[in-house]
Amino acid sequence: MSALADFLIDLTDPETRSEFDADPENSMNRAGLTEFEKHAVRSRNGAWIRYQIKNGGSAPLPEGRNMPEIAAGVLAIDVIDVIDVVDVVVVAETGE
Q1: CA-to-CA distance for 67 and 64, rounded, in angstroms?
Q2: Number of domain units in the chain
């Protein structure tokens, strides 16, 4: 599983979530997220988050593509709040 998927799963722990709420950047750094993964978390865009999970956290947006195109091809939903990690966890575990 990717560092991003692990990070999102860890956010379901109340203590970890509190640490994230207090200092998101430090939490993401401690989790070892790449800059692309951090950007995805900051954006709170479900498609971008899933795209990073599927591509190992090292994938810029493909040349000539935009986020709505990625969303249409990658997720059934366009935007999620990172707080609602259940959908992302399911995506990470099933790859669907």
Answers
A1: 10
A2: 1
Q: What is the pLDDT of residues 40-94, one digit of tens each?
A: 898 888 878 888 888 777 766 655 555 555 554 544 433 344 444 444 544 444 5
pTM for this entry? 0.64
Q: Which of 34, 96, 40, 94 is nearest to 67 (CA)?
A: 40
Count the neighbouring beta carbons within 10 Å of the beta carbon of residue 31.
19
Residue 68 token pair: 């709505």
CA distance 2 to 54: 8
Separation of alpha carbons 52 and 40, rounded Å: 7
Rg of the chain taking only CA atoms, in angstroms = 12
